[in-house]
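Field log, afternoon session.

UNIT: design team B
ACTIVITY: writing a sequence onto a fixed backbone
BACKBONE:
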């Protein structure tokens, strides 16, 4: 596996793998993301909405210098926090790297397994949208 992907997995494990229970983990995720900047209102458009989420979740993908970048926002603090983790996990990777790095690391850390079924569906839709964007950029030959 790619060194950068392995490095990112280690960083995720260091930051999120040390919590004793799900409540502590989600309190940390929520408190960390309270400080993050929300998306500007003009970017909260239907074209960026991730379908299948309980709450409204927007994903803004961009492609620059051969790498994919992602920003997100949600009207739920839990969804916003988990989406921020996913976006930071994938931002700055090439399309090939994204397509070889699945969201299963979130299962290993107990993040996705502690979500409600509806929120897990939203997470899988978010990951699918990211993968779809990477596939699109890859087929463009970038």
């Amino acid at each position: 596996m790619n060194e950068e992907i392995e490095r990112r997995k280690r960083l995720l494990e260091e930051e999120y793998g040390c919590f004793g229970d799900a409540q502590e983990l989600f309190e940390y995720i929520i408190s960390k993301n309270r400080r993050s900047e929300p998306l500007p209102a003009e970017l909260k458009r239907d074209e960026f909405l991730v379908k299948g989420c309980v709450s409204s979740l927007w994903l803004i993908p961009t492609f620059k210098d051969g790498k994919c970048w992602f920003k997100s926002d949600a009207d739920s603090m839990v969804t916003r926090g988990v989406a921020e983790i996913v976006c930071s996990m994938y931002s700055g990777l090439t399309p090939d790297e994204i397509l070889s790095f699945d969201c299963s690391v979130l299962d290993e850390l107990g993040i996705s397994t502690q979500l409600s079924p509806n929120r897990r569906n939203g997470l899988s839709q978010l990951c699918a949208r990211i993968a779809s964007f990477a596939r699109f950029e890859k087929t463009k030959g970038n």
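LOG NOTE: The two ends are 21 Å apart (CA to CA).
NEXT ACTIVITY: expression trials, pending approval
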